[in-house]
Amino acid sequence: MGITPFAALPHGSPIPVGLTLRYQVEATTLTKLINIIHDTPRLNSLTVVPRGIPAAAQFEVRITLGG
Known about the structure:
Layout: E1 3-11, E2 18-26, H1 27-38, E3 43-50, E4 58-66
Antiparallel strand pairs: 1-2, 2-4, 3-4
């Protein structure tokens, strides 16, 4: 329960300048995670997508840092 990591993908070639992180998050943890991420330096984007039926209380969160 809570936060489950999916993937971490670097951006940029040949030197990575950014990172996209994907997590599966329970609804009860989502607000806490967004409050923490909101103050993160170099936050480029934050996307929250519901996982849908049958996992209505779960969300996929994509966090992009850097360029």
